[in-house]
Amino acid sequence: MPKSVMQCDPSLNKTVWDPLQIFNCCIQYKYAVVILNSPLDWKNNSLLQIWKKAEVKVTVDGGTFRWIQYLKKQGIDLLNEHNNEYVPTLITGDMDSCSGLILEQLKSMGSMIIETPDQNHTDYVKALIELRHYAEKKDIKLNGIYVFADSSGRFDHIMGNINTLYKSDELIKNVQIIQIANNSLTWILRPGFHSIIIPKILVQNSSWCGLLPIGAPVNCIITTGLKWNLNNTTLKFGDLVSSSNTYDNSSEVTVNTDSSLVWTMGIEPLQKNIDDYQISSNTY
User: Fold this and answer.
1) Quick check: 151 and 187 in contact, CB under 8 A?
2) Which residues 6+ apart lie within 8 Å of 255 measured at CB?
3) CA pair distance 166, 190, nearest whole angstrom
4) The Thiamin pyrophosphokinase thiamin-binding domain covers which part of the protein (predicted)?
5) CA 35, 36, 40 angle in degrees (round to 5)?
6) For residue 43, pLDDT beyond 70
7) Torsions phi, psi for 281 (to 5 deg)
8) Whole-angstrom Cα distance, residue 137 to residue 9?
9) Please, what's the b/e burial string for 31-68 (b: 16 or more CB within 10 A of its CB; e: otherwise)?
10) Which residues lie across from 235 on neighbouring strands?
């Protein structure tokens, strides 16, 4: 079986996560990319590689302009050159943050423009719904979705993005969603047993990680591989949360939880040395 970002064994309710596979995806792992309206502060070409290997590419409203500006910094003029591999498959949103002229030009280059004016949902939520519809129509079986969403800036936007992660199973079932910032990865750990493979460079640099019970308490959680492990512990805001944690020299963190919670991890050392990891995922 090809290695992928996560492998599930339904009988054990076990999920294995391998962050390196985000930057070195095998062709058997089918994923989509979603770019939200937030800064794309990437100093290497790993974002370009992730984009090019995606089955579906989505830019969300102002994220379209962010993508164009990012490409310009890489020496790629999307609107004046024939760089079809960088043209979004879908452009969604209420379109209040993107020029109509740009949208028309991208439409002529092959993008499907889907205006989603419903103000009862965020553009992020609506993008996932439209992505699901597109994948169903084209019979694309997605394994994952990588959402590029910066983790700085407006706190209400950050929390809104986390809320969307919690709702993701309702929006697009059986597809894991990982939010990627230039310095971190964030995803939801659903109830059950999880194994997270930690790249060696993150262990060596004592990179940060956290387990956050946003929205509701976690009544029982057990971990291994962390500097400060949890043993049949309750996590809840107003009491104990596991922030500013790190690793105990282990290449694996395990989490057994009775409730959904947020896993987040810093990737700064990995980003600075990503070229060393794009040759093979078996580096640790």
Assistant:
1) no
2) 189, 193, 194, 196, 211, 221, 222, 223, 263
3) 9
4) 194-261
5) 70
6) yes
7) -85, -5
8) 28
9) bbbbbbbbebebeeebbbebbeebbbbbbbbbbbebbb
10) 218
Residues 6 or more apart whose CB falls under 8 angstroms from that of 243 comprise 210, 212
Domains of the chain: 24-182 (3.40.50.10240), 183-283 (2.60.120.320)
pLDDT at 205: 96
Instruction: Find out whether 219 and 156 touch, Cβ atoms under 8 Å.
Output: no
Q: Write the DSSP assignment of the chain as a string of letters.
A: ----SEEEETTTTEEEE-THHHHS--TTS-EEEEE-SS----SSSHHHHHHHH-SEEEEETHHHHHHHHHHHHTT--TTTS--GGGS-SEEEE--SSS-HHHHHHHHHTTPEEEE---TTS-HHHHHHHHHHHHHHHHT---SEEEEE--SSS-HHHHHHHHHHHHHHHHHSTT-EEEEE-SSEEEEEE-SEEEEEEPPHHHHHTT--EEEE--SS-EEEEEEESBSS--SSEEE-TTS--EEEE-B-S-SEEEEEESS-EEEEEE-HHHHHTGGGGSS-S---
- Give the distance from CA 278 to its chain's centroid: 18
Quote the Cα angle for 87-93-95, to 5°. Answer: 90
What tokens does 263 get?
């896993």
Model confidence, pTM? 0.89
Q: Which of 93, 113, 94 is nearest to 102 (CA)?
A: 113
On the question of pLDDT at 199 being above 90, the answer is yes
pLDDT at 2 > cutoff 50: no
Q: What is the pLDDT of residue 41?
A: 85
